[in-house]
Amino acid sequence: MVHLQKTDTKKFDVKKTEGMFRRHLEFRKEFPEEYFAKEYQLPKNIAILRDLLLPPVLGYDKDGCPVRLVQVGRQDIKGGLCCFRPSEMPKYFVWFLDMDKEEMRKRSRETGVHIEKRTFIIDLEGLNLLHIYRRDVYEMALAFLKLYENNYPENFKVAFIINTPSFFHCLFNMFKPLLSENTCERLKIYGNSGWKEAILEHIEADLLPVTYGGTRTDPDGDPCCPSLVKILNPIPKELHLKNMNSLSEDDKNVRKITVGSRSKCNIHLKVDVPGSTVGWQVECPRYDIKMYLVYAEGSKHDMVTKPVTVRCDFGSETGCYLAERTGLYSLVLDNSYSIFREKQILCKVYVTAYTSKISHVFKTVLSENNNS
C-alpha cells in the first residue's frame, strides 16, 4: 500500500501529487517494500561491514523521532566505494530506508505515538577535496538524493549538517536543484560553532556524546563514544568486491552458462501469483555481460528492468522485480555486443510468492534458450 505522506498538505497540487504517486508505484515495482524490509540479503562483504556503515541510532528526539549520527569526514570513502557496485547502490539505500521505516512502525506500536520522520546529525569534520573529487562519489550522492527526495521526503524531519568545510557551499549548490524547497528548509547548516546549542533544542543531552554537546560517554569515560560511533579506516582490501567470490559452482542452485559471442541467453521463469518477486544473482568471473528482465508472454517481449552491466571486478549482480502480471518472464544475458569473446556466467534465479505471514520459493528456472 502506498501512502500519500509524501505530499505536503500546505502546498498540495493534485497534478503533481498524481505524478509523484505514479512514479512511486513504478519505483515500488522495482523495489518492493515487503521484500527489502523482510527478505533482502546484503552481499557478504556489506553484511560484515553493516554495523560500521550504518549510521547509529543515538536514541529518540523530543518528538520521539529516531536520531541518526552520520560521520562522513573520518570514513574510508574510497575503500567503501570499492565494496559497492554502482548499480547495487539504490538497493542498499532502499534496504536501509525501508528497514528504518519498519523500526519506526515498531516504535509507534510500542509507544502509541505515530512516528514516521527521522532526524540526522551529519558531521563533515575531516572532509577534504580528496574525498569528494571523484566521479563515483558524486554519482553516489546524486543517486541517494534523487531516491530520497522522490520516494521518502516526508520521512525526513531535520538534518543538522555540522563542521562544514570552506568548500561546502560550492558543493551544496551542485545538489540544491535536486531538492525541494520543503527539504531545503529542513537542512540546518553550520560551520564549527553554534550547532551544539541548536541540536540540544531538539535532542536531550543524555543521548548525545560529550563531543556533540551532550553528557553521554562510553563506559570507560571516552567522550567520543567509539563503541557507538564506529569508524573503520581503512576498510580491509579483502572486503573489496573484486576480492569476493559471491557464487560457487558447488552450490546446487547455481547454474553455469556459456553465452556465445554475438548471442544472448534467455533464462525463463513462470509467475503464477500476481505480486510475486522475480529475483536473481548473476556473476561474470571474467570480462562483462549485459543483463535485463523481460515479460515474455505473447509475441512481443516487454522489457521490465533497465539493462545493467555485470562486471568481473564488482562480483555478482543481485536484483529483483515485483511481477504484477502472471505468465512467463525471461532474464536475458546479452553478449551480442561482443564480437569475439564468449562469456562464462554463474547465476541463481527464482520466483518468490508472498503470503500473509511467510514467503517461499515455489518456482525455479524452467529452461535456458541460447538465441544467436
UniProtKB/TrEMBL annotation:
Superkingdom of source: Eukaryota
InterPro entries recorded: CRAL-TRIO_dom, CRAL-TRIO_dom_sf, GOLD_dom_sf, SEC14/CRAL-TRIO_domain
Annotated PROSITE patterns: CRAL_TRIO
Gene3D superfamilies (UniProt xref): CRAL-TRIO lipid binding domain (3.40.525.10), GOLD domain (2.60.120.680)
Signal peptide interval: none
Start and end residues of each CRAL-TRIO domain: 45-220
Gene Ontology CC: cytoplasm
PANTHER family: SEC14 RELATED PROTEIN, SEC14-LIKE PROTEIN 2
Name the UniProt record assigns to this protein: CRAL-TRIO domain-containing protein
UniProt organism field: Larinioides sclopetarius
Lineage of producing organism: Eukaryota, Metazoa, Ecdysozoa, Arthropoda, Chelicerata
